[in-house]
Amino acid sequence: MSIASKPIDPAALKSAILDKLVYSVGKDLDRATRHDWFFATTLAVRDRIVDHWMQTHREQAGDGHKHVYYLSLEFLIGRLLADALNNMQLMEPVGIALSELGVDPDEVLKVEPDAALGNGGLGRLAACFMDSMATLGVAGMGYGIRYEHGLFKQGFDSGWQVERPEDWLAFGNPWEFERPEAVYPIRFFGTVKESEIEGRKIYLWEGGERVLAVAWDTPIVGWQGQTINTLRLWSGQSGNLIDLDAFNRGDYVKAVEEQVNAQSISRVLYPNDSTEAGQLLRLKQEYFFTSASLQDILRRHLARFETFDNLGQQVAIQLNDTHPAIAVPELMRLLIDDYEIAWDKAFAITSSVINYTNHTLMPEALERWPVSLMERLLPRHMQIIYELNAQVLNELRSKPETRDPDLAEVSIIGEGRDRMVRMGNLAFLGSRRVNGVSALHGDLMKETVFKQLHAFYPQKITAITNGVTPRRWLLSCNPGLAALITSAIGDRWITDLEALDELTPLAKDASFKEHFARIKRSNKEVLAALIAKRNGIGVDPDALFDVQIKRIHEYKRQLLNILEAIALYLAIKQRPDADWQPRVKIFGGKAAPSYVRAKLVIKLINDVARVVNGDPDIDGKLRIAFLPNYNVSLAERIIPAGELSEQISTAGLEASGTGNMKFALNGALTIGTLDGANVEIKDHVGDDNIFIFGLTAEQVLERRSHGHNPQSTIETTPILREALDAIGQGRFSVDNPSLFRPLLEDLRTTDWFLVTDDFKSYFDTQRRVDKVYADQSIWTEKAIINTAKMGFFSSDRSIREYADVIWQAPLAH
């Protein structure tokens, strides 16, 4: 029986919440804070989950369930209480119970901090997949790191990004369960001793540094609670108590040094890797959670079957990007060194269970680690990597079609001036399947980053387009629209998003259009109030809400967006009496602490916003707002209000994107290049319901290979030249006119991301957007079509394809 099929009694929930408030939180009703009510409510709801969680464990322990393990350095799960209440269909009865206790349910939901376990699309994809795996009944488990502080809390100081500690665990986390019985030793550094027993080589990895990985489990509730899977996160701890002798000598730093080193591994997501110490810590993190996860997977499998002979039939491991690529030599090491399995069999097992999802087409973004660092930190793994590499290269050289004796593009070791371990190649060679995350991405992988590997292993690369969970990204974040859809076509769409296609005829229905537009207007009013509160500026809900929210990176081209805003601003200044379509440009996203150029783009956006928003001549025709500390909860406020979705990456560089799907699902129109999943969105919504501009991926490759002249492009594009001149003359940085010179010099010389080449097409397409938006009836019709055609982009469909094509795992629902 699912959780949702049980009778729901608000009176019983009210009693349960009060009991938790008194006996678990230790407060009485009169003294309870919002935080106390959040904890009490969560604990009461959690109790309803646990029984079914245990039942899921019992059911999945059977021989008929193939277990899928999803390894990801990020899980951007956001707030869990509202998500659980929606999936369990408890939102209304819990709301009634809290209201009868004199508590505002909305305020309770807002208390929960976002779990700071990720940065962007990579982590949010992992969270959507966990939701869909549970909803579909995949026997799945996620593995990651329990970051104490996550990435960072973003603030702005004079327009500059400021990184502050993210303290999401400061008041505890009522969702998690510590598992002291699930603790695994993780070794770093040390030496490897080789010996021989009965003709078999034995490798002993000894000495060095040893830490413990301790498991913390969080239940992941599928729709109606039919399956409740587990997210297991690892926390670093020292295996020893403090050095009491050092403490008594007064050397307090030395006394706790080992504990600090161990705990630092799970302290912060993505340490600054521009330094050697940062690189070392990041590689430690990747190996730490990968090794702990693999040890746990093998232990769990042996508890079921007592043999590894059937590991490939009973287990599938998915590597989310190259961060856990060390899983290939680590699984080999565990099988060979700990379980005494021969090399060939160990590799056969490894390559039958591991699968790798690639998320980038940029060679420089595929992780590479210095050989010297790997040899020092993980000496046994380098031995395995060398042997594996030699074996692969020798096998390929023996093939008659091999013409390159060096096989430089295939080798796991990059033999440049600084020898590097190529983690992408390692993951590719050690995996059963290598997945691209959109149709275009799958094709481009074969032609670019993995061209030579694909030539030798043509059966490995697959392409399964990403998706988003409709439970969070429509049902939960946009309840008004969700209710309208359900009233029109029923609620089947919640687990079968293809049902949204039934909305297509309603795009021309006057009553439905009116209701749809009214809901969008209401969502815009909510976002306008948030902008006023956080940014101190007023925006008109009747203006076009034009949104770009994503990680700040040069290839995502926030720079192109703000240059268009500058050009529009200058045009309005020159012709203030023209009939301009009012527009609010909304930005959100974080730049990596060491990414100087991306942080300079943030500064430019904020400086332009300060000038534009303070210019009385503009009179509300253009507003710019960069909302700080972008996270899942903020996205849940922005996306339902968005009307124009900026997906403007340089074609061929965005693997897929999921923000484009979330916006379109909530009735926004996309402006974008033919990149990533934009291509498939265009195919589904139709050419008339999307705004495509710029160079194609093929044209980008041709332009780069044959050279291009950005300065010439600038000189022949007056609106672009004027915008760049305004920046260079210090119009937006009066106190430091040369502040943005690095951005300008790059645009005029290299312009690797082809901002100048695409600018005119982008600017003209934005003016076409203005004309379409002026007719609100037509715009609403197009918005409804976007929502109606998003059925394909459900993460449920993605997981069904993964289960069929990659994991070969059954679905329970």
Automatic annotation (TrEMBL):
It holds the Pfam family Phosphorylase. The modification N6-(pyridoxal phosphate)lysine is found at residue 662. Its cofactor is pyridoxal 5'-phosphate. Its main location: cytoplasm. The keyword NAD does not apply. It catalyses: [(1->4)-alpha-D-glucosyl](n) + phosphate = [(1->4)-alpha-D-glucosyl](n-1) + alpha-D-glucose 1-phosphate. It is found in: Cytoplasm. Keywords: Allosteric enzyme, Carbohydrate metabolism, Cytoplasm, Glycosyltransferase, Pyridoxal phosphate, Transferase. Its EC number is 2.4.1.1. GO terms for biological process: glycogen catabolic process. PROSITE patterns: PHOSPHORYLASE. The keyword S-adenosyl-L-methionine does not apply. GO terms for molecular function: glycogen phosphorylase activity; pyridoxal phosphate binding. Gene3D superfamilies: Glycogen Phosphorylase B. Belongs to the glycogen phosphorylase family. PANTHER family: GLYCOGEN PHOSPHORYLASE, GLYCOGEN PHOSPHORYLASE, LIVER FORM. This is Alpha-1,4 glucan phosphorylase.
